[in-house]
Amino acid sequence: MENKTDSFIIKNFKENFIFFDGAMGTMLQSSGLEIGELPEILNISNPETIINIHKAYLDAGSDIITTNTFGANRLKLAGSTYSPSQIISAAISNAKAAISEYDSKKYIALDIGPIGSLLAPMGTLEFDEAYDIFKEQVLAGKEAGADIILIETMTDIYEVKAAILAAKENSDLPVFCTMSFQKNGRTFIGTDVATFVAVAEGLGADVLGANCSLGPSQLQEIVDDLVKYSSVPVMIQANAGLPKYKDNTTYYDIGPSEYSKQIELMARKGVSILGGCCGTTPLYIKSIKDVLSNLKVKEVTYKGLTTCTSSSNTVFLGDGVRIIGERINPTGKKLLKEALRSSDLEYIIEEAIRQQECGADILDVNVGLPGIDEKEMMTNVITEIQTLIPLPLQIDSADAKVIEAAARIYNGKPIINSVNGKKESMEAIFPIVKKYGCLVIGLTLDEEGLPKTAKKRLEIASKLIDTAKTYGIPEESILIDPLVLTVSAEQEAVMETLKSIPLIKNKYNVKIVLGASNVSFGLPNRTLMNTTYLAMALAYGLDAPITDPTNDAIMGVIRAYRVLANEDKGSKDYVSVYANTPSSTSDHDASKDSSMLGSNNKTLVDSYLKDIIIKGLKDEARPVTLDLLKQYDSLDIVNKYMMPALDIVGDKYEKEEIFLPQLLRSAETSKEVFEVIKEDLIKKDNLDSKVMEGDKIVMATVYGDIHDIGKNIVKLILENYGYNIIDLGKDVPIERIVDVAKEENVKLVGLSALMTTTVKNMELTIKTLKEALPNVKVMVGGAVLTADYAKEIGADYYSSDAKGAVDIAKEVFK
Amino acid sequence: MKTRYQLRTNQIKSNQIDVNIEEVLRYLQYKSNDIDEETLRVLKESILEIKEISELRYVYRIIDIDKNDTSISFNNEFSINSKDLSKLFKASDKVAVLASTLGLAVEKRIRYYSITNLSKAVIFDACATTYIEALCDYIEEEIREIAKEENCGITFRFSPGYGDVPISHQGDILRTLNATKLIGLNASESSILIPRKSVTAFIGLDKSNTTKSIAKSCKKCNLFKTCTYSKEGGNCGK
To answer: Which of A660, A711, A728, A784 to mutate to test the interface with B (most CBs of B within 10 A)?
Structure first.
């Protein structure tokens, strides 16, 4: 497989360069037309001008011309009298009219630019809506006779995903896709070239590249990365240099000859499709065509890299040990089960962050639990984790429907966990892997069960890899898990798993993953067994253990292995971790003292907890609370120590002795105490304790609004007072708030809105809530609200701060 | 040549702009100088962090305006019905329309802290607000120089959301400046700027050259009720 692109267009050109056109906007401006807000309308109001621009580029030697449809989507055209399909069909007619005058074969690329509204969760445009917007453009373009779909000037890889999916699912046209990078090698939204290539190539883009934002010389480093990672042809449409200002006019600073010198350099590096962006004209196209006339296209090499990504970060597997964190999996974890049942995403996110901090490269996400909607939970958890941390995720489910839903909304290129050698499994999973361009873990078991020998493992791996290829999935997209056996049960077969690793790797370009902790099942000192086995597996060629990165012994083995395998050069990482005896650099290093207090010094411990809360020493809350739990009932700890401490803090705040950051530190400390108590109760199966049954309040930042610091402050303080907050997050659709309020049968809903524009949605939410649940009370807050305004929009209560919200809650639940 | 071409975009290094700690404390509503050690430590740490991850970008354009008592037209591209703006620009034929941002990394970090460390989120957010305002002050000086060449002074900086100008005009400003493409600034359907630590504003090139006499009425400001300056008996100087 030397070239992944089967596109007829690319094949037609074989060893020749393909020339696009240059800027449309620049040409429109110099044509002297008065440009309104939407240049796309000129397709209908002034077709001659557009046709002439196309012709000028065709005369200069362009093989492919780009329709004047950059912003022809339903959001950008909202204010005009034309629909996207009217504009697109006119634009393609214009392109056809221009082409009809030429004998040689020319092609039309349907231009699709960014929608102009950021996708959720960063913005508020839903992924499915973005998909629909692109779909409308693709269908119109296909209908009108476009030859190519050109998705260009993108900065958001999530939007790229929506656009490529829309193009692939609704047409058979080849898809060319370019993103705009800044000098730092990333787009405005934070995607780097490696990530772009991994995601776009996985989704099936036929050509990819970079355009706009920079001149050709500034794009050279971007080009280096593109040709380094891409297995499909690379295209570049640079600006005519950087914008300069003189005599109150803007111009681009390099001319056609300098431009084409830089382009020649790109062509020598391996770029085969060339054109121009802002500031370029037919002169530039003619010039690059002349310069390249004696040059041959450099053949695209197949890279065969195994990569998974988030939206901003690519992990290369096979390039040293990579750690897949296994902790987000409810099997055998009471606390996580409870968090899933109560939709407590916060707990799950904390697990994700902790694993990241401990050194995980990838996180496995499994939320399968009887009685919960796994699909909804999986997509919610993935979205939430992806908003906060940049690690790629591994979608782990036994249900293909859950996997497909998650793979679709995933922002980047995920790993699917898993497929196995059973026919049924392969038929369900491989189409998803192919369509969304994922990596997949293949388990070496099939209809005959778990094999005993290394040879049989290799056979199943071969079956998986060969079958995957029939779906168009290359072998480097497969990670084989040769499945560990439990040594206490099948001691003679344990080595077979390890022996299969080199067998498989010698034959195929696949990477090996392994969940290693089952080996020790049923034996004492499991950590010793697990770490020894892990070390052996690494030596046999394991690429990515699926393990617990918060376990120091396991991480120790991996760090040591990295030194011994010459991955951790100069033992830098190893030394930085182990050279200094671990000492906390925190300003408050009293945590160690808390254990010294022991349980015999009663009064000291008692006052110490109060003190910790008042001073806001969060790190010390856990050990001290655990100590207290040895001798006190949980309710006593809350009532005797926590509440009085909070009262003191509240009092100091009102007297302006302390200010908001300090108040919050105390509240966070207090929350930690509460968490420790709750965890203790869950572990003891004591779910009926009074501490667990706070009155429920639903809280949300209203639809369209993304400000949530204020809401989170109110939530935190209410939690301190024992209320059970169901936090729906930000930008929450009205129906969702109503549904949850109904389901949970809550008496009080708290809403936040910070903008004049979103107070309307708050009003609508209150109205809908009151219609569905006449008895529910609504309290509101947010910078633009006042008590009067709140009343006007139908709220029962208004508060300007968290303290007020507590008073309201007390009144509602009295 | 039409003013459409008079567009400047730039990126500056974060060490060119400083964060004033006093200002941050005011956003945090500290009313005394009695800041505790831990808050000060987190505040300083936040400033370093923000400076490290910010990408200070801005774009502005000097636009010809047509005006009457109740409305301003910006080169026929868009218009705003506003008595406040008409009054502010009574001695202006040209207005600088600007957009600036700290970039998306700061936005992401604020979201991260607002889930993982709320007390830091509050401090971090205040530092970022101070920083973007300081960037606007820097841009304002550039515009003052341009105004000088035209023998003009400048009016104060007026952003959508002030007075009678609704934030729904964010989209107009971003479009006219091509700001999404040039500096990565977006507006949501509810006209929330994303990244949020971004500012759009108008600054008039004032022929009367009497910048200081044009003081905004505090009572007309949307923030009047929550303004911490006025609570202290002062004003924001605008």
So the answer is: A660
